C-alpha cells in the first residue's frame, strides 16, 4: 500500500534529515557554516577551439549526434558543435535519461576537463545542462560542498542558498576587532564563500587565503577558546581541598635524592604547590621531553597531598610504565615511612584485595596503577590529588572516573603528565582550559643520542654493532616493527626476531618483552635487563615509555618508517640515560619505496633531538586532531582553522574570548550557539 502524500513527504524529510545529520547539519545555521571544498567557474563560456587542455571549462553548443557505441564496452558518445569547432562528450556509465538529454538538435552546456583524444577535443563524464540560446550565465562561482551518499550537490546548493536568503546579519564581533584584524563582517564572509563573484580568485578561495576565510578561521578559534575558558571557569567555581605546602615530607625527599632538581623542575614544583594550596581543583598539564624528570615533580606534588592528610593516586596507561613509576616511588618514599600501593590487573587477587582494603580504610595514602585504579572495587575516600601519566592515551571518561573516586563533595586536584611536548599554538587552543608547566631542560649527565638512518640491506652490520656494544659491557634494545593490522602478527614477528638474534648472537643473553606476556614474566625480564643480567632486549613498543636503564647505550628500531614521530622520539629516549655515548639506529625497508609521510618523519627524527621542535614538525605533518587525540578529548574540533597557517590569530582569539566572557557573556553565548548549537561536548576532564 502506497503512503499518503503527507506521509511520503514526512518520510522523504526524515531521509534528508538523516543524510544532513551525517554531515553534522542539524539546523539552518549549520548550513551556513557548511562551507565549500572547492569551486567551479560556470560564469563564462569558452570556445571549444580555445579551451585549454587539463583545465575545467564550460562550453556551449548544439548536439550534432548522440549514439551508444561498443568500443570494448558500451559507452554513450555525443558530438557537440559551437562556432569554433566540435567536441566529443563520452560517458562510460550512463542512464537512458542522459541519452535523452543529449538528443540531436538540443542546446547544452557541458562542464568538465578538456583533453585531446583519438577523435580530437573530448570530455569524459561532463556535467550537462540543457539551455535555451542566450540563457544568462550564473553570476557567482559554483560551490562544491562536502556531501554524503544520496545527497546531490544540486540539492545541497539549494538548501544552503535558502539558508543564506533567510539569514539576517548577526555580527557578534566588536567593530574594533574587525578593524584591527582587517576582517569582513560575518554576512559578507558567508556571501563571499558561498556565492563568490567571477572576479574572485578561485586559487585564493581554495587555498583559504581570501579575507572571508580569515574571518571564519578567527571566529572558529574564538568559539573554541570561549568553550574551553568556560570549562576552566566552571572548574574554578568547584571546591577542592586546600593542600597547603607544609615542607615536611617534601623537604625530606628533596634532601634524600641523589641528584639536584633542575631549574625547570623547581619552577614546576612551585607552580603546582601554589595551585594545590587553593580551594579550587587544579587542572595542570606537566609536559616535558623524554627524561626531563616529570616523575619526581609528581612525587613532590603527591607528598604535599599526604602532608595534609589526603590520598594521592598515579594512573599510567601500560603496566610496564605503571610498574616503573611504582618502583621509583617505592624506592624514594619507603625510607620516609610511607607505603605505596601497587594496583594492576596482573597482581594476585589476594594481594590486590589487601591493597584495596588499606586504601579504603585510609591506612595507605598512596596508590599507583593502571586502569585497575578506576575499577569499582577501588575506593579512595580521601583522594586529594590524581596524577595521570601520558594523559592523551586515556579517554575523557577514564580521567573523570579517577577524579570521581573522591567522596564527600570535594573534587581532587588533577595533574596530567605528557612526554609529548605540545607546540605553543596547540597548547593555547586544545589545552586552553589547563594550566601548563613545562620542563624545558634535561637533568645534568644526560648524553645526546646520535641517530643513524640505515637501510635494512645492511642489517648484518647493525647486528655486529650490537655485539660490539655488548662486548664493551653495554646493553642494547631491538624494537620490532609495528604491524597495525594484527597484534598476533606483531607477536609472531617479535618472537621470530628474538629467535633469529639469539642464534646470530650466541654469546649474548637475549630477552624478549611484548604485550601478550604474563605480567610476572614481563616484570622478571625487565628486572633482569635493569640488573644487567640481559644484554639485548628484543621488544615491541611496550618499552616506549617509562623504561630507565642507564647502562643501555644502543637502540635499534626495525622498520622505523612504520612508527609515528612521537613514538620514535620516545623510543630513542630509552638510551642516553647514562654517561656512555649512545646511538639510535633507524632501520628502514630497502625493498619498497617510502611514502612521503614516512620520509618526512625519518628526516625530522634524524635532524632533530629537541622534543618541542619534533612536536612542531609532527603537528605540521599530522594536523592538530591526530596530534592530541582530540577525537577522544572532548575538545571542540577545528573544522576550518589551521593552527600552523592561522597561528597569528590564536592569541587575539584567546584575548577576545576572555573579554567577551567578562563583559559580553550574551555575545559569547550566541557565538557558541552559532557554531556548536549546544553541542559543546564534554568539558575537559
TrEMBL record:
InterPro entries: ATP-dep_DNA_helicase_RecG, DEAD/DEAH_box_helicase_dom, Helicase_ATP-bd, Helicase_C-like, NA-bd_OB-fold, P-loop_NTPase, RecG/Mfd, RecG_dom3_C. One of its GO terms (biological process) is DNA recombination. Keywords: ATP-binding, DNA damage, DNA recombination, DNA repair, DNA-binding, Helicase, Hydrolase, Isomerase, Nucleotide-binding. Residues 472-620 form the Helicase C-terminal domain. SMART domains: DEXDc (SM00487), HELICc (SM00490). CDD domains: DEXHc_RecG, RecG_wedge_OBF. It comes from the Bacteria. Residues 275-439 form the Helicase ATP-binding domain. It catalyses: ATP + H2O = ADP + phosphate + H(+); Couples ATP hydrolysis with the unwinding of duplex DNA by translocating in the 3'-5' direction. It holds the Pfam family Helicase_C. GO terms for molecular function: 3'-5' DNA helicase activity; ATP binding; ATP hydrolysis activity; DNA binding. PROSITE patterns: HELICASE_ATP_BIND_1 (PS51192), HELICASE_CTER (PS51194). Its EC number is 5.6.2.4. Belongs to the helicase family. RecG subfamily. Plays a critical role in recombination and DNA repair. Helps process Holliday junction intermediates to mature products by catalyzing branch migration. Has replication fork regression activity, unwinds stalled or blocked replication forks to make a HJ that can be resolved. Has a DNA unwinding activity characteristic of a DNA helicase with 3'-5' polarity. This is ATP-dependent DNA helicase RecG. It comes from Pseudazoarcus pumilus. The lineage of its organism: Bacteria, Pseudomonadati, Pseudomonadota, Betaproteobacteria, Rhodocyclales.
